[in-house]
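Figure 3 (text version): structure tokens given as input.
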């Protein structure tokens, strides 16, 4: 037998030529694969629901109440088949499955090569190939497989959301439904399949940076693992700076495990976007055999130091919880992230970019990958690296008592090892947590006692996962990363406001308290909080039939999944306005509530950021940034990428400098710049007829990276407004109107909108106006409180001929070409 010619490792992406069909149980599996009937072409990556929808074999699951009509899909088995050619001139051939959802038996040329049981575990299978090959995959119903495992392992255990069988299935948990999502138990080839052929290859590349305390030197420790025949091979390592200039290059003999260290002098540090730039170094690896390139790889990385600071707080109990990046303490603002669709392959790089750019443009610095979804595609983390968005990464466990039998623990260990190795080199990831809300659930059931050691045989045996399996994997594969057992993770009880992170759901949640109570409901780091609202009207009309455009219609109520959700929406909306009988009025009222609630929360918790040694709150992440379908939810960007009004309110509340009012008359400023700012403060008080009854101005100094108390102002039934100016330019505003709004009649205002440039509008008023909303998506600011003698300039991508404007108490339509008000309410 001749020795194969040495060649560069070959990758053949197996995305085209696939067919799928429903499994016919009456036939043997072999006969079912062989039958010519019932097959449909499909794309890969994809999912069964997506393929059926594209073939027009099912109705759109998101439209109306069609969700109920397509449940049968998740209760069936599905077959996928591909024929492909292969090169036989390589020593090794491996089929690589980056993601199979979930229980999948894989056959190559009639031989079983893989029994997959984990949606989150990539698989690499050595295979023997023919010139022509047949790849067949049998996807079993996750629904029935989960039920079998549940019954075989002690039956149902407590959980929130979905079905109790979900905890036995290593699959995206939100597919079982959540309080913002439908039940679509999908299956299929949700990530890439490829054939890799080689004689020698780079199997794994580990990078670890170690930045000296003075930030002047960083070492780069490299561990390279090789597979194949490399007796005469050598490796060339090239370190390039962020501009692509070679800093150092070395040539080393190849071994199974190769170690090397580079030193970087005066490293360019990676920062979140509010603190600095995002320089990314690059390590290039070239594998040579007898002087011929047989494999090569590149890995970008950032050099930064991250600390989670938990230290005493002056005059308060407990300890702080905040992030310090390269020695700079930062208030971390941002949002929780859920998967952007139920049919995951529809989430394109363009969709990822749009969402992450929207978060950055809203002055957010962190996205939390929530534990009931997925470990996101590599493009998500690459974009966060490039844009300077920090990532809080949950492992995929959420709101349940998970099992702890040996086979399950081994499955989790393999998943965690794979995902840590996949994600560990991203500078954006600054924290890993073991689960979402499993500890509070266990505590509420009387199953958690921190003084007792984890025990796999206990009712809350999953502590072994969070306190042993996962941290052991982290120590092995990413020893320099910060890990904690859960989110929230706490001391004696889950609602502890003095230690760790906290999920604050007293507002909207079980107690449904008023949002002004956020001043008493913070924590050292609020990793979840939120207020529900309907999506934009245009988005609702995509999925609700025209004859059901009503806040009490079955279709609208179907697009609200939270328990008692409609009751809570009505409860909060009732404080905004009366006669909310039309869909338009009701939707807008819910959006005002969400806008006001998030504004209050962010401003009060930024106040608690305080100053050094007084960091009572280190950050807040709103639940949630995005949606996976058209639904009333806590998202601030709906599933059609239309911004809800709260998006703009959050954007203003997270500016580097804000001026803030509270109902008790307090005034304070937040300054997240790293230098002191000198400004002028203006204070206005209007009576309920809109006349100025008090005005004053003060020169103020805003301490660097701190909140500064600026005194108080008189109290009464009035409208309060403050402005912060520098060099006579307004840099921040805030206002407070009497609440609840429904009980007060606001002054009738003459609002004017004027086009002053190709992409600019000026909006002004002669009386105070609350919650002014311009019906357009591409605009620099929106959901405004307007005050007399304070026009605001807005940037638009394009100026429409007509512009609809809504506000608390009315609406208008402007003909911008004629500059004429053509409608008035």
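Below: residues designed for each position.
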């Amino acid at each position: 037998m001749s020795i194969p010619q040495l060649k560069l490792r070959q990758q053949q992406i197996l995305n085209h030529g696939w067919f799928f069909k429903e499994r016919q149980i009456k036939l043997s599996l072999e006969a079912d694969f062989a039958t010519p009937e019932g097959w449909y072409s499909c794309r890969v990556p994809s999912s069964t629901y997506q393929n059926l929808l594209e073939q027009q074999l099912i109705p759109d699951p998101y439209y109306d109440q069609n969700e109920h009509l397509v449940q049968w899909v998740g209760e069936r088995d599905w077959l996928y088949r591909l024929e492909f050619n292969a090169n036989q001139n390589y020593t090794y051939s491996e089929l690589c499955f980056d993601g199979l959802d979930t229980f999948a038996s894989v056959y190559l040329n009639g031989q079983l090569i893989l029994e997959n049981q984990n949606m989150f575990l990539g698989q690499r299978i050595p295979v023997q190939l023919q010139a022509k090959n047949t790849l067949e995959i049998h996807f079993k119903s996750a629904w029935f497989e989960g039920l079998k495992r549940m019954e075989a392992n002690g039956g149902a255990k407590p959980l929130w959301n979905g079905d109790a069988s979900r905890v036995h299935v290593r699959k995206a948990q939100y597919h079982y439904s959540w309080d913002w999502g439908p039940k679509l138990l999908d299956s299929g080839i949700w990530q890439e399949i490829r054939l890799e052929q080689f004689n020698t290859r780079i199997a794994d590349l580990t990078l670890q940076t170690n930045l000296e305390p003075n930030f002047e030197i960083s070492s780069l420790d490299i561990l390279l693992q090789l597979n194949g025949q490399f007796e005469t091979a050598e490796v060339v390592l090239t370190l390039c700076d962020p501009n692509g200039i070679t800093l150092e290059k070395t040539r080393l003999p190849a071994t199974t495990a190769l170690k090397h260290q580079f030193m970087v002098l005066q490293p360019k540090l990676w920062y979140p976007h509010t603190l600095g730039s995002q320089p990314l170094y690059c390590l290039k690896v070239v594998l040579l055999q007898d002087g011929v390139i047989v494999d090569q790889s590149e890995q970008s990385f950032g050099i930064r130091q991250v600390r989670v600071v938990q230290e005493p707080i002056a005059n308060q109990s407990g300890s702080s919880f905040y992030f310090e990046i390269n020695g700079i303490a930062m208030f971390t603002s941002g949002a929780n992230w859920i998967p952007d669709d139920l049919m995951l392959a529809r989430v394109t790089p363009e969709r990822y970019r749009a969402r992450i750019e929207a978060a950055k443009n809203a002055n957010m610095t962190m996205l939390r990958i929530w534990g009931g979804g997925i470990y996101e595609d590599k493009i998500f983390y690459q974009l966060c690296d490039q844009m300077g968005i920090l990532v809080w990464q949950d492992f995929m466990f959420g709101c349940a008592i998970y099992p702890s039998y040996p086979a399950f623990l081994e499955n989790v260990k393999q998943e965690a090892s794979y995902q840590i190795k996949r994600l560990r080199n991203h500078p954006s990831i600054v924290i890993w947590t073991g689960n979402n809300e499993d500890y509070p659930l266990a505590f509420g059931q009387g199953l958690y006692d921190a003084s007792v050691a984890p025990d796999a045989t206990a009712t809350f045996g999953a502590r072994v996962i969070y306190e042993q399996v996962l941290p052991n994997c982290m120590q092995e594969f990413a020893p320099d990363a910060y890990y904690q057992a859960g989110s929230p993770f706490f001391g004696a009880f889950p609602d502890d406001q003095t230690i760790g992170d906290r999920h604050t759901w007293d507002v909207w949640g079980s107690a449904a308290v008023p949002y002004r109570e956020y001043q008493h409901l913070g924590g050292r780091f609020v990793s979840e909080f939120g207020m529900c609202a309907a999506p934009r009207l245009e988005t609702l009309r995509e999925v609700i039939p025209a004859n059901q455009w009503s806040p009490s219609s079955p279709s609208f109520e179907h697009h609200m999944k939270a328990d008692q959700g409609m009751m809570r929406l009505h409860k909060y909306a009732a404080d905004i306005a009366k006669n909310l009988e039309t869909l338009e009025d009701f939707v807008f009222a819910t959006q005002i509530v969400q806008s006001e609630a998030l504004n209050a929360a962010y401003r009060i918790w930024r106040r608690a950021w305080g100053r050094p040694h007084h960091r009572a709150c280190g950050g807040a992440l709103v639940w949630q940034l995005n949606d996976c379908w058209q639904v009333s939810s806590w998202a601030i960007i709906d599933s059609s990428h239309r911004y809800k009004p709260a998006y703009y309110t959050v954007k203003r509340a997270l500016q580097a400098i804000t001026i803030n009012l509270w109902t008790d008359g307090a005034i304070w400023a937040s300054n997240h710049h790293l230098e002191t700012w000198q400004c002028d403060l203006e204070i206005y008080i209007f009576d309920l007829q809109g006349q100025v009854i008090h005005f004053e101005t003060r020169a103020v100094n805003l301490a660097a990276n701190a909140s500064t108390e600026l005194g108080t102002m008189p109290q009464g039934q009035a409208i309060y407004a403050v402005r912060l100016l520098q060099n006579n330019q307004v840099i921040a505003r805030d206002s407070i109107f009497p609440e609840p709004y429904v009980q007060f009649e606001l002054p009738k205002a003459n609002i004017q909108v004027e086009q002053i440039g190709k992409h600019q509008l000026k909006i002004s008023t002669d009386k105070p106006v609350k919650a002014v909303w311009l019906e357009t998506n591409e605009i620099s600011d929106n959901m405004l409180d307007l005050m007399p003698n304070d026009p605001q300039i807005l940037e638009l991508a394009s100026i429409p001929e007509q512009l609809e404007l809504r506000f608390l108490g009315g609406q208008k339509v402007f003909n911008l070409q004629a500059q004429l008000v053509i409608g008035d309410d």
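The radius of gyration is 29 Å.
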